[in-house]
Amino acid sequence: WRKGSDFYNANVTGTEFDLRTADQIWGVSGNASVSQLIYSDQENVNGLRYSFEFGKISGNWRFDISTSGKSKNYNNNDLGYVTETNIKEYDAGIRYSITEGWGFMDRANFWFNSFVNTTYEKNEFSSIHFNAGFWTQTKQQWNLNMWTNYRPYTKDFYEPRVDGRYLYRPGFYNMGWWIGSDRRKKLRVGLNAFGLKFFEEGSGIYSFGLEPRYRFTNKFSVFLDLGANFDKNVRGWVDSHNNTPIIGRRDQMTINNSMGINYTVSSTMAFNLRARHYWSNVYYNSFHSLNLEGELGATDYNAFNDFSFNVFNIDLNYTWRFAPGSDLIVVWKNNISGGQFDDLINYRERSYVDGLRSLSELPQTNSISIRLVYFLNAANYL
User: Fold this and answer.
1) Closest among 325, 303, 188, 315 to 242, alpha carbons compared
2) What whole-number distance in Å separates Cα of residue 253 and Cα of residue 354?
3) In 3-state terms, what secondary structure has residue 95?
4) What are φ and ψ of residue 74, in 5° steps?
């Protein structure tokens, strides 16, 4: 509940439950919450969010069915964060687990899931989605994860930014994998790759990643997380022109690199340092109007919309557990961020090195935060 004189009042109230049989084989769970924006000079805005799940929760074979929904006006931003609303989802899945070893596998999970999405208010079909995959840890402590997805097509009711309109997105299939070496070793390396192909000529998404980690001692370790993502000729909202949504076909390259250092002083004190650079570069291949059937049409719109965006963060954290359940946490944050939207720049030829160089032109902020948490009964445990 929030109440004030210079802004709207707000209320978010929710409840949840989790019930299981005595033998822990079957379970049912759910939650529901309501949101209310209370204005002094206009009608209140009310919203609802809910979810319900039933399934077999133990054993080698497990399954679940669930449903969830968020009404168009659901808004819990005074308490948390909500991204999309006016959506219902119906899910069903089955999983088989190996827990006692089989062949080269020490543990493993195999699964298949299906999802159907509709709008909340009118139950208009949005998409159906299928996902399958497996994860295993070998007897040599290597990890392997592989998955695939398939979606025939999507009616995207969010991208046009206009109530009642949708963007037709062609279907896709994808495959991905992740492999990690023995985590008990001083050097551990993770590799991943992902590819998505739309049912449309020349359109897809591809990503690659490398995650090395080296443990010098049990107290000191460093890691890198290097990733690159490439969108090719993907549809997305650009602007509104003559009261019509404009959709562009765009290429986007995103590089996301981070490194970290962890140092444990003792069982109650630790430092960790994180540095991360995110750079994304976008350029448009063509522009189209959006017709009432969600398809792309011709337009005379040709405004400049290419851009790049840079973020560089450094976080230094100090944690001291000075008593049971009681912590002193000190965090220093350095942030450099901003975008470049300049029609004198050829974004098609822009490289990651160009992105790094442009960091010196962007504003920088620094902040220090101190948090003290004390467990009132800590003295009883000393």
Assistant:
1) 303
2) 13
3) strand
4) -65, 130
Q: How far apart are CA 152 and CA 234, in angstroms?
A: 16
Of 126, 132, 58, 140, nearest in space to 90 by CA: 126
- Asked if 256 and 236 count as a contact pair (C-beta separation under 8 A), the reply is no
Sort 69 into a burial class: Cβ within 10 Å, 0-12 / 13-18 / 19+.
buried
CB 359, CB 336: distance < 8 Å? yes
- What's the predicted TM-score (pTM) here? 0.87
Q: Match 């954290």 to its residue by tokens.
A: 317
Residues present in the chain in total: 382
| DSSP secondary structure letter of residue 358 | G
Q: Supply 85's token pair.
A: 């609303």
User: What is the structure's pLDDT at 80?
Assistant: 82
The first and second tokens of residue 228, run together, are 């690159």
Other Cβ atoms within 10 Å of 369 Cβ, number: 10
In the chain, which ranges are continuous DSSP H helix? Answer: 352-357
Could you report the per-residue pLDDT of 42-100, keeping only the tens digit for each? 889 999 999 999 999 999 999 999 999 999 999 998 888 888 899 999 999 999 999 88
Q: Collapse the DSSP code of 361 into the 3-class scheme (helix H, G, I; strand E, B; otherwise coil) and give the result.
A: helix
